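Quarterly update from the structural biology core.
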Amino acid sequence: MNEIQHVLRTCDGSCETDGVRCYVCNGLAICSVCTAAEGELLTFCPGYALGWQAKDACYHGNVLDFNSLKRMKESGYNVRTKKWDK
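Predicted structure, tokenized:
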């Protein structure tokens, strides 16, 4: 499986209003592809926009890497029951 790097948003600084800059200018990392930010970012970008459930699971440490989960599933691990299939 190919590992896709996150494409972080950038801002040209034109967002500044009354001396206040946007979150991106202030250093917030947001992926333009998967739409995750900071603690929601997976190890690698899945290549599509994530729903709030997936971002929340990643933020809380329940999902770290979809690539690892896919490899585990292919090896016989059931990600729903958290048990190895016989």
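Residues 1-86 form one domain.
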